[in-house]
Amino acid sequence: MQTHLLLRDHPRALALRPTVLEEAPSGVLVFEEYNGQGPSEDKAMARLLPPSEFEDSEWRILNARPVFGCLGIINVQKECFVAIVTDCVSVGRIRAGEEVYRIQSVSFYSLASSRYDDLDLSSRENWETEEFDQTNITSTTLQHPCLQLQKLFSIGSFYFTPDFDLTKTVQARTSAASMVSGLLDFRAKLDRKKQMDLDRGGFLVFSIRGYVGTEHVYADDERFELSVISKLSCKRAGTRFNSRGIDDNGHVANFVETEVVLYSDQACYSFTQVRGSVPVFWEQQGMQLVNHKIQISRGPSATQPAVNRHFKELVERYTVISNVNLLAERENTGESMLGNAYNTAVQHLQLPTSTIQMCNFDLHAECRGGNYENVSLLMKTLRKDLENYGYFLMDSDDNQIVCTQKGVFRTNCMDCLDRTNLVQNEISRLALTHFLDNRRVDHRRSLDGILSRHAHLWAENGDGLSKIYAGTGALKSAFTRTGKVTFMNVLSDATRSVNRFYINNFQDKARQEVIDQLLGKLSGQKSIAIHDPISDSVSRLMTARVKEYSSSRKITIFSGTYNLNGKNFKGELLDPWLLQHFRWSEEEPDIYAIGFQEIIELSPQQVMVTDAEKRKVWEQQIENTLNSRKGGKSKYVHLRSNQLVGAALMIYVKSSIVENIRNVESAIKKTGIMGVAGNKGAVGIRMEYGDTSFCFIAAHFASGHSNYEDRNNDFHTIHQGLTFLRGRTISSHNNILWMSDLNYRVALSNEEAREYVSQGNIDALLRADQLQKEMRLDRVFSGYEEGPITFMPTYKYDNGTDIYDTSEKQRVPGWTDRIIFRGSNLKQLQYARAELYTSDHRPVLAIFEANIVTFDREAKARLQKELYQESLSSIKLTNTLPTLPRRRTPSLPARPSAEIMDTLVDVSLDELEAVQLPPPSTDSIKWWENGGELPKSDRRQTTKKNPFNTQWQDFNHRPSLNSESSWIPISPVPANNGNGINGLLKTMPSSVDGNDNINININSNSNGSGSLPDTYELDASASISVSNAFGFWNNKQAT
Predict the structure, then answer these.
(1) What is the crossing angle of helices 533-544 and 857-874, to 10°?
(2) Which of 317, 692, 920, 973 is least enclosed by beta carbons within 10 angstroms?
(3) Which residues pair with 291 in a beta bridge?
(4) Alpha helices by DSSP H, 374-525
């Protein structure tokens, strides 16, 4: 429904009002800035006003043309903006009454300021080809804070419909509401009528990103509407090299559900498929040229819980899954390594084997040279599953479901674009052909016409999804469209590949940031909450009662650092370092965080390239050491590793806690040679255990005895510049540990230092320690702690000996290898060094105890709802409407007097004197709300006669049934029965039988005096077949 966007200047507010109020009196949705106590940038106010309370004179139309609803509210640069769909175009109809629109433009209006209202956005037609950056904007140009979001919405990949839930398939809609989250909470708190008013007004718009295409086709004189609908998941949305693989919640990158719908007046057919990135932890870092530099970032044991979550969700939604893996199988390639990890994960799924099938098909090898006809070999393999899964079919006349789809195909290649789209088109074509054959569409021309339009839509679908994820149209789309490949098609694909290389390597980072901003995933970004005084009160109560929906436990963390000086593993046991703490305690650490420096020799040839082979050797040795301890009770799994040339960081955890660890990410920051070389810098790994976040850093600072200022600069560069996904920094975490070669030295002469070393005078050496001095002066590691140092300097030794450096340089002994920490819930239990002789450094270790908090989401939601209801019921609602007098229902008294009442309104006098009544009420005018006096009865129009007592009192005027003022009682006996009311009233005590019926004996005891008997009871059993006795004025009854 179209709406007008209105603006009130003072105080500033925005409003959405239907263009035609008479047709849909749903009210007016008003948005205002929240100006109450506390931060206002993450709150807004929304009200749904009835039309009668909306003062038109205070408002003016802000947008000349009608708008098409609100997408939500977003916080950008600490300011609230309302997203309004200002232009759209119809794509077509999916089914009867289900029309889809493509969003052409979205405008963002501030709730706080008018300075962005009139910005010239006339150049939006070039936005599809513009870069998502701001480097060409001068400092004097007033730029809309939401400009990049406006560009994103304008490129034509967002769709919405006011008619149905576009996020669901036809089967899901037939069988059974980020930015808009705050408005959904607002809607949920409205009563049912206001919810219906809000929905009927078309104020809130639910959009999808993906592709929607429709075509009209004819077969055997029957008109069909053929549609392809692809919906991209927002759970792990992003661009090609920035969003890969799976996350800890089981969501995969580029996950798309595609549905083909064929609708006519007789039947509705639907067939659904899905695609998604390979569901293991993998990534591609650095410049991607010809060969894919694929890194599997987690081991199989640490990957399996996320893979289980992914397929469990798919099985719950689709029942049976057939995986079609199109990765190359050639040995020693990134794709084959990824395919092997995928197959291993599927083999270890904790699901019934009947629900998961796996099919591997190397499309590049099978279709080498453009022979894509060989895809038919794959179709033969999948035919049985296709027949078993079937399709959804419904009778369009009576909406009766004929059959349902019982499983889906999940297809993937590397990017889930080109190869995937080609194969999905073939699977869809087979399913559609099977349906048409069953419909007996025998005319070959009709069948070819439908399949031709089907191929065209799938080619357009491939191009649309490819532009979203990779920035260009799909490769191999020519074969999808026409079924053949020409030289010009090959040339076009080569051009698109070059464009992809540029876009993915140089523009995708900015595009990823815009997508994360839209989804509210940037670090520190808060979703806008609609202000609700009760919710604010509930939030305070929830904070006070946090223990009711949370649990905490203590864990132990082993952290260690070791500068290897470029030396290879020589078979030296790591037990003195990794297992030293078991001398004092048998408690096994939950987490091992181990940092290395100079894991490779830092030669000029290697400072620009990372060699992971030596790291893998050390990874294996550490895992063997942890899992081969005599008497060990726990198994440790390799969670995550990363490397920056010489610096490397490895995380191991107990296998029993992997399920509780989420959002594991890694990042690097170079500081060598003006930030270009990786010989110096840091590697960071962050994660969340329950609802407590950790960040581990393995760093290597600048060398040189007196270069402490360079080391200070390295710290600030890393601390501020090492960023994880969605803008998270090191400071964003609850607990931070640095296991690093910080290279701070002891500021003494060599002779002095060695003399103190020989005396074992650690305190004298520490007084000259550069790091402790810089920390006292708050120049570095502000807010961090270091445990007491009780061990001798760890640097520098002659290799393989306990003798400090005797080389020509004779370096001063010092504690270059340090473990620094920050966190209110971290408690250091041990800080020591280990005696290993592989390097000229000694490794350092520290044991920490940490408190982990985990929230029970379901318990939290229950308590929040309970507190909200309690707060709501405790508020005494004041009724602003005047209290109307209630009409009393006449009842029979226990012992009536001879004269029941002395004044009764006699409506027969209405004809004699007119009473001044208020005007009739309307939707906008209600007479009881105008503040006037309520109408009162005229006491002059009274009579002493009691029309209820005509059976027993001797009135001069006995009303007849034909009188205008008479009552007609609804009773089991006729009103003119000679027995009168005596048929209902009896004069003896009643009793209750076993069937709960009141039994009353009939005994007439009228003495003719006109008085009621002393006692009377109603015969309940006699009135079972009739309604209760009420009186109506006979001139008011319907004829």
Answers:
(1) 130
(2) 920
(3) none
(4) 375-389, 418-438, 444-469, 477-482, 487-506, 508-518
Residues 271/386, Cβ–Cβ less than 8 Å: no
Question: What band does 437 get if pLDDT is binned at 50, 70 and 90?
Answer: confident
What letters, b where the CB count within 10 A reaches 16 and e where it falls short, cover 589-626?
bbbbbbbbbbbbebeeebbeebeeebbeebbebbbebb
Q: Residue 172: which residues within 8 A CB-CB, separation 6 or more?
A: none
Residues linked to residue 529 through DSSP beta bridges, in sequence order: 43
For residues 445 and 927, give the distance between their C-alpha atoms in angstroms, rounded to a whole number. Answer: 69
Name 563's Cβ contacts closer than 8 Å, sequence gap at least 6: 596, 597, 598, 700, 741, 795, 816, 817, 839, 840, 841
- On the question of a cis peptide bond just before residue 526, with omega within 30 degrees of 0, the verdict is no
H or E element, residue 300: helix 300-318
Q: How far apart are CA 831 and CA 847, in angstroms?
A: 7
CB 91 within 8 A of CB 214: yes
Task: Record the tokens describing residue 226, joined without a space.
Answer: 């053929």
pLDDT at 935: 61
| Calculated CA dihedral for residues 17, 20, 22, 28, nearest 10 degrees | 0
Is residue 28 within 8 A of residue 51, CB to CB? The reply is yes
pLDDT of residue 1038: 37
Structure-token pair, residue 859: 């318990």
Q: 3-class SS at 653?
A: strand
| Helix axes 375-389 and 418-438, enclosed angle (nearest 10) | 50
3-state SS assignment for residue 107? strand
CA distance 308 to 956: 91
Length of the chain: 1039
Q: Which of 234-248, 488-502, 652-666, 883-897 is predicted least confidently?
A: 883-897
Residue 81 pairs in a beta bridge with 74, 110
Helices and strands counted in the chain (H then E): 21, 40
**What percent of the chain has pLDDT above 90?**
49
pLDDT at 169: 86
Q: What is the mean pLDDT of the chain?
A: 80
Contact (Cβ atoms closer than 8 angstroms) between residue 1005 and residue 1013: yes
Average confidence (pLDDT) over 866-874? 83
707 burial via Cβ count (<10 Å: 0-12, 13-18, 19+): middle
pLDDT above 60: residue 970: no
Q: What is the pTM of this model?
A: 0.75
User: How far apart (Å, rounded) are the C-alpha atoms in residues 364 and 366?
Assistant: 6
Tokens of 594: 């181990």
Confidence of residue 753 (pLDDT cuts 50, 70, 90): very high
Burial of 336 (0-12, 13-18, 19+ CB in 10 A): middle
Q: How far apart are CA 338 and CA 792, in angstroms?
A: 46
CB of 565 within 8 A of CB of 843? no
DSSP tag of 234: S
CA distances 412 to 363, 381, 419, 1023, Å, are 11, 16, 8, 72
Is residue 297 within 8 A of residue 666, CB to CB? The reply is yes
pLDDT in the model for residue 763: 95
- Mean pLDDT computed over 364-380: 90
Least confident of 106-120, 335-349, 476-490, 654-668: 476-490
Q: In angstroms, how far is the first alpha carbon of the chain from the final one?
A: 42
Q: What is the pLDDT of residue 350?
A: 86
Bridge partners (DSSP) of residue 723 are: 729
Question: Which letter, b or e, does each residue of 456-480 get, where b requires 16 or more Cβ atoms within 10 Å of its Cβ?
Answer: bbbbbbbbbbbbbbbbbbbbbbbbb
Highest mean pLDDT among 399-408, 721-730, 987-996: 399-408
Output b/e per residue, 29-60; b: 16+ Cβ within 10 A: bbbbbbeeeeebbbbbbbebeebeebeeeebe
Looking only at the bridges linking them, the beta strands covering 529-530 and 408-412 are unpaired
